[in-house]
Amino acid sequence: MKITIDTLKKSMLNLGHKWFTDRPNIIGIRATMDIPDVFNDIFCFVWVQSKMPINLTTKQKQEWLNDNHYIGKNGLPLKPDGLLGGNTDYALSEYNNTVGKERLITNIITTDPGVFWLNNPINKLGTAVLKPGQYIDCWSIGLHQRKTDHPAFVQVDRVTVFRDNDGNSNSTTIGMKEDNGLFGINIHRGNVNGKTPKIGRWSAGCQVFQTKTDLDFILHLCEPYKRIRNRFTYTLIAESNL
After folding, report:
1. Which end is more exposed in the chain, N or C (fewer Cβ atoms within 10 Å of the end residue's Cβ)?
2. What sign does the CA torsion over 210, 213, 218, 222 have?
3. In whole angstroms, what is the distance from residue 172 CA to residue 242 CA?
4. Taking the CA of residue 234 as centre, how many other CA atoms within 13 Å lie in the half-sphere pointing to its CB?
5. Cα–Cα distance measured from residue 6 to residue 12, given in angstroms and rounded to the nearest whole number
């Protein structure tokens, strides 16, 4: 699926959701095709690019550009060697073209539970499948399951889930009862290293990043907003609504 800021804005407005200008827009897109235990959903993060601090050395500029997801013309992060060159010039040009404007990052996630928990529900009503919708201020940056090595967006307010209780390996929402409350529906990572090969036990309803470093960077971008107010809005939409 081709995702742009414009298509996201249009979909959000068509669904009656709010598009934020003072904080990031954090959006999950649930794929139409549900493939058991496969990471095939999309996480979208839209934010306004802040200004580079003044009086930085060339090396500090390179480090700052890397920290803000700018790359060289070779498609790689900059080498922070303090030397100007084609890659640094390219990244600086990209920065100048985007400063003060909205930028988009997309990552691979799952918005569906893994097969293990679909077959072995924690809750007697069935396994939680987050219902599409906009959940304003329902997450804070904290620790998944209070583990110090697992920073995440932690659920702090009520959300609505479907309770999948049909016992099969596919995530099912049609005909399933809804449940509203605090269920620990966090937004966290899978394996510590590399890409997580399958959803497995990583999600019993949580939104899970396939790659840890992708989530790390999103949390890094959220730090300035966290210092102002540690509440974040997550919007889940269906691929068919794009």
Report:
1. N
2. positive
3. 21
4. 29
5. 10
Tell me the two tokens of residue 147. 């583990």
Find residue 232's DSSP bridge partners.
139
Residues 6+ apart with CB under 8 A from 23: 225, 232, 233
pTM reported for the whole predicted model? 0.93
pLDDT by residue for the chain (242 residues), tens only, comes to: 689 999 999 999 999 999 999 999 999 999 999 999 999 999 999 999 999 999 999 999 999 999 999 999 999 999 999 999 999 999 999 999 999 999 999 999 999 999 999 999 999 999 999 999 999 999 999 999 999 999 999 999 999 999 999 989 998 888 899 999 999 999 999 999 999 999 999 999 999 999 999 999 999 999 999 999 999 999 999 999 99
- Are the C-beta atoms of residues 39 and 51 closer than 8 Å to each other? no
